[in-house]
Design a protein that fits this description.
The structure is a homotetramer. By secondary structure, the first copy, chain A, is α/β, with parallel strands linked by helices. Helices cover about 40% and strands about 20% of the residues of chain A. Chain A has one domain: Rossmann fold, CATH 3.40.50.450. The first copy, chain A, contains 6 helices and 7 strands; from the N terminus they run E-H-E-H-E-E-H-E-H-E-H-E-H. Chains in contact: A-B, A-C, A-D, B-C, B-D, C-D.
Chain lengths: ~160, ~160, ~160, ~160
């Protein structure tokens, strides 16, 4: 009965193109029956992906930086305030079967790094932080995706045949 | 669309009576349409309440002490490993609209203390840690409940008319 | 070469009597050559105990609730911001060889609870949260102390002959 | 009275060259009168840098991944167990005036990322994770250093004239 969780990471501010990608990856995650988990803020990649998933009838879990339930996207089903600040990044990573990293800053980069260290599958959508970084992080597999559709294909391939 | 979350706290080991109470409070939470959140372990109050909620068709979120997804109750819908140890107690508290505290040790007592400090409604089920402790913790309201039915009545009363 | 750390817990606001007790326990900790660790805020029990220790030539470590180095007592040698909010309470507890709990609210009560759960020696100075609470928390030993001098005697007795 | 803290990050396992670099950066930090802070493990970059600092008469703070005081380098003055797992990485970063990143995996990369996000000065010693990663993380300044001496020069320059 355990649900498959796809984590979508990314910044509070992002380019229009990245926000559009986040919205569409959110929609596609919901259409495939997976649960979306993100950082839950009412802005940026978090809000855009949540809106996409909700408009497609999906379920969204938001793990908040702050301790305030009201500082959250309106598109969340489950609001989990933590008050842990960046200490909550590790929860996002460990709770995800697959991590999709959209455009972001050091917070997002730290989530990619920890996801690979804890052997999560990471898909980097729409940008490239470089193999010099990604290859160093750990044993999780990573790949780049140019579009949400490509990211979804990579998620499906992984979930159908997870790395041993 | 935000779901109401009732947190059920309690120990890894507990008396048969407390485990029975946890099972029934889990059932009743599900029957009322609320989501159950707990520490997610495959034992004690956590496992018993999860089983109760699932057998009644409910939804259960487990926020794990460990970083290992597999060290979790089989009755969870959403498994959130944290690797934060006791640092995750604050998440359980902040994520709950109402906290039900069953028999437990220092972990559970710390959750009661932080829940009252962060102004959550706390219902202590089946034991009494004393007003000398409870009154000192903060501005959240607390009450004792002798039975799961009594606890549910208190939850309903609170959710219908939350403290300002 | 490992230093003995005495943690002093307590609230942001406290009675004049409790603040005076915190100042004196800080002084006495320093005079005995132990390191003081607390939550590092520039107010309440934290600031008073830090001032006491510094005025007696001691060393003080502050583990901050916030992520801002500047929101800290001026009497700290080592300022450790965490941004973890109440998630940092567990650090204070685990880092202390002995915990002295002064007047406080749910934050302080949560620290007492976790300290006893993780088998730390706890001395409650100047108030009494009740045996119904303290006995339930775990295997750490606890005692009440009416004065800073009494607390210091209890710390000395413990450090000279720690519980097995 | 607040001490200057230099954080040294790096992996549990590392090449002989990186371990030698960590030992020497530890020595040099102590010789300059700064306090060394690291993850405190009894192995890898953490143990090597601690040993270097202690052999030069310095002070070392270890912020542990685990909740066990005994799973720590013997070269620490202050042992701070957290039990927070990777959640403690943010403490290492926020507590440091300057961060020196030695060879490591995803844990170290996450610390670089968060350090730059929180505007800390980061010096990468002996390897290069790439500007495509480093430039994306945030507003903190970063530089590469080929040797411990070069790293120390960069630390000195920063501490004498910190970024506004």
């Amino acid at each position: 009965m355990r649900k498959t969780i796809v984590g979508v990471m990314g910044g509070c501010t992002a380019s229009a193109e990245a926000l559009d990608g986040a919205y569409h990856i959110g929609r596609l995650i919901a259409e495939h029956g997976w649960t979306l988990l993100n950082g839950g803020r009412p802005e940026g990649i978090m809000d855009a992906s949540s809106r996409g998933a909700k408009e497609a009838g999906g379920t969204v879990i938001g793990v908040l930086f702050d301790d305030d339930r009201d500082n959250a996207s309106e598109y969340l089903d489950y609001v989990l305030p933590t008050g842990l600040g960046s200490g909550r990044n590790i929860i996002n990573v460990l709770s995800s079967d697959v991590v999709v990293a959209c455009e972001g800053n050091g917070g997002t980069m730290s989530e990619i790094a920890m996801a690979l260290r804890f052997e999560r599958r990471v898909i980097v959508l729409g940008f490239d932080p470089g193999a010099a970084f990604l290859d160093r992080c750990g044993r999780g597999e990573w790949s780049l995706a140019a579009t949400p559709d490509e990211a979804i294909s990579q998620i499906k391939a992984f979930l159908e045949s997870p790395k041993q």
